[in-house]
Write a structure and sequence with these properties.
The structure holds two protein chains of two kinds. Chain A contains no helices and eleven strands. By secondary structure, chain A is mainly β. The radius of gyration of chain A is 13 Å and the shape is globular. Chain B is an all-beta fold. In chain B, about 0% of the residues lie in helices and about 55% in strands. Chain B is built from no helices and eleven strands. Chain B has strands spanning about 5, 10-15, 20-25, 30-40, 45-50, 55, 60-65, 70-75, 85-90, 100, 105-110. In chain B, strands 2, 4, 5, 9, 10 and 11 form a six-stranded mixed β-sheet that branches. Chain B has a five-stranded antiparallel β-sheet with strand order 1-3-8-7-6, with no helix packed on it. The chains are: A mainly beta, B mainly beta.
């Protein structure tokens, strides 16, 4: 069964450093998403991406964040200058254009020290 | 007001019990409704979509009441493996943000 994959599974970084989280969505999906979940809190939407541009973003997704689809398979989330409060699980998801159902990758646990 | 609200639990039940979770949503424009399951430190996994007519998948039954903006999940004959957090999720349009509740924790014991 096709699945969303994410790398790395765990990233530790120092405050102020840049990080790039990587995702490979399901191959025939055209919508891509990033969500985050701070420990003990709910899953929160960050951004959606379709046709090589951001289609929706939340107020969490400020100028420190950017997304990119550098090639035909990868989808990345970059955090330019990490803060302590960026520590969270980051989940990538993908879906078909006509489908409400989104499928999640296993997540990257980001720890900012 | 939170957009999706759930009773956080925890619900502690013995194996074989029937347990029901409830959820309310505030935005009447919501179009699609789901129950996801999340194990500790894992990704949310789609359990089932929820339709106005109600739907069943084995031991799981989901109901939607659009008038009351209320969603439910019933689990019959609980198994140890059902222990997880159950997330109520709504969506306004395909390709847009899923809006999650905080989840209800279920613990099934032998």
């Amino acid at each position: 069964e096709p699945e969303v994959t994410q790398t790395p599974s765990h990233q530790v970084t120092q405050m102020g450093q840049e990080v790039i989280l990587r995702c490979v969505p399901i191959s025939n999906h055209l919508y891509f998403y990033w969500y985050r979940q701070i420990l003990g809190q709910k899953v929160e939407f960050l951004v959606s991406f379709y046709n090589n541009e951001i289609s929706e973003k939340s107020e969490i997704f400020d100028d420190q964040f950017s997304v990119e689809r550098p090639d035909g398979s990868n989808f990345t989330l970059k955090i330019r200058s990490t803060k302590l409060e960026d520590s969270a699980m980051y989940f990538c998801a993908s879906s078909l254009p006509s489908d409400y159902e989104q499928y999640f990758g296993p997540g990257t646990r980001l720890t900012v020290t | 007001r939170k957009e999706v609200e759930q009773d956080p639990g925890p619900f502690n039940v013995p194996e074989g019990a029937t347990v029901a979770f409830n959820c309310t949503y505030s935005n009447s424009a919501s179009q699609s409704f789901f129950w996801y399951r999340q194990d500790c430190r894992k990704e949310p996994k789609l359990l089932m979509s929820v339709y106005s007519s109600g739907n069943e998948d084995g031991r799981f039954t989901a109901q939607l009441n659009r008038a009351s903006q209320y969603i439910s999940l019933l689990i019959r004959d609980s198994k140890l493996s059902d222990s997880a957090t159950y997330l109520c999720v709504v969506n306004h349009q395909a390709g847009t943000a899923l809006i999650f509740g905080k989840g209800t924790t279920l613990s099934v014991s032998s």
